[in-house]
Amino acid sequence: MAILNVLNYPDSRLHKIASIVEVVDSEIKAIIKDMTETMYAAPGIGLAATQVDFHKRIIIVDISEKQNDLIVLINPEILRTDGFQESEEGCLSVPGIYEKVKRASLIKVKALNIKGETFELEVDGKISICIQHEMDHLMGKVFVEYLSPLKKNRIKSKMIKRNKKSVAI
Ligand code: K1U
Ligand code: ZN
Asked: Does the beta carbon of 52 lie inside 6 Å of ligand 1?
């Protein structure tokens, strides 16, 4: 297992569209193991393959406090949504920035698990927000893109300065 590098916003690789996983083979299982280690080490409650520069439709989420309730979603598809909720989101690719985003309240999702079996999940609350956030990453969308151009550009400038500093150190 390995801790992978998480891409920092702004980075053009965060805007790539992930492709479908054709077969859940050993390469896919290995990247999922590494993503899990990376998410738990960060720590985070979700991670999309896009964020570790692997452009296949894979996301993982675990909103439990004890990091013992991992859900792997391969080729996730939203089947149904209901209602709206607004809450503060963070992102491992935009560290230290938390902003309110409006999303669907309830989602019904279909995906493959790590064994390549199809399953469905109907969730609301925090896990629903997290899955929607991670699915956006697979489409090349970072949560700051929901904000006003003014807020988004302020965050972008802050991140560029911060990224330059961390390269210099
Ligand atoms: O970068 C990511 O996609 C992960 C992100 C997931 C997320 C958080 C909040 C709302 C929507 C999606 C994070 O995990 S940021 C870190 C975070 O929120 C957190 C970390 C440790 C404990 C509790 C929360
Ligand atoms: Zn994110």
From this structure: no
Ranges of beta strands (E only) in the chain are 46-48, 58-61, 71-89, 99-112, 118-124
Determine the Cα angle at 6 with ends 93 and 16, to 5°.
75
pTM of the model: 0.98
Environment class of 168 (CB within 10 Å of its CB; exposed 0-12, middle 13-18, buried 19+)? exposed
- From ligand 2's centre to the CA of 134, what distance in Å? 6
pLDDT single digits (tens) 58-110:
999 999 999 999 999 999 999 999 999 999 999 999 999 999 999 999 999 99
Both tokens of residue 56? 């296949």
Give the CA angle between residues 38, 138, 96 to the nearest 5°. 50
